[in-house]
From TrEMBL:
A Pfam family hit: Glyco_tran_28_C
Protein's name in the database: UDP-N-acetylglucosamine--N-acetylmuramyl-(Pentapeptide) pyrophosphoryl-undecaprenol N-acetylglucosamine transferase
Keyword Glycosyltransferase: yes
Biological process per Gene Ontology, one example term: carbohydrate metabolic process
Keywords: Glycosyltransferase, Transferase
Upper classification of the organism: Bacteria, Bacillati, Actinomycetota, Actinomycetes, Kitasatosporales
A molecular function GO annotation: hexosyltransferase activity
Residues annotated as domain Glycosyl transferase family 28 C-terminal: 159-205
Coiled-coil blocks: none
Cited InterPro entries: Glyco_trans_28_C, GlycoTrans_28_N
Keyword Cell cycle applies: no
Amino acid sequence: SVGITALGTERGLETRLVPERGYELALIPAVPLPRKPTPELITVPGRLRGTIKAAEQILERTKADAVAGFGGYVALPAYLAAKRLGVPIVIHEANARPGLANKIGSRYAAQVAVSMPDSKLRGSRYIGIPLRRSIATLDRAAARPEARHRFGLDPNLPTLLVSGGSQGARRLNEVVQQVAPWLQQAGIQILHAVGPKNELPHVQQMPGMP
């Protein structure tokens, strides 16, 4: 049997999704890495050391045989903790442009898988995006009428799907609001995933925006 423990932070979607699926969730402090030089950058090394230590303790407690990482706040501390303890690292990069955590982690990883064939991550192997069987085998043609009905879409109009990632993107939501009337006039309907933390109550009421 295989035991799985997911690392996360208290503000991530994993606090809901992981327990719902019956897996153990262990939390470590979030240490965002500034993309540009800021005064906050000075505090990162000290905070990162504490987070790495927390990740080490979890790896030791669970007697982890491997660490699988996908980038993000918790990935870099997990990679560095695994390196210290000699635990093998496996990475999957789903984005066309790898993030900092996976760039660093790929230096120490036993295996690096990517979703894009031209990825620049060292030692990477192209495998695409792993999908659940229910999605990979979905009969899209058969599901399409039900999906149109559920979202109130007109089958005779082109549809623009807007999604700002798993939690949405406020700025993207604002732009869609602004251009929605022009898209509607052009005969384009919009299916907009605003994200759980970026609710815009009046979006659903705008004509042409299911």
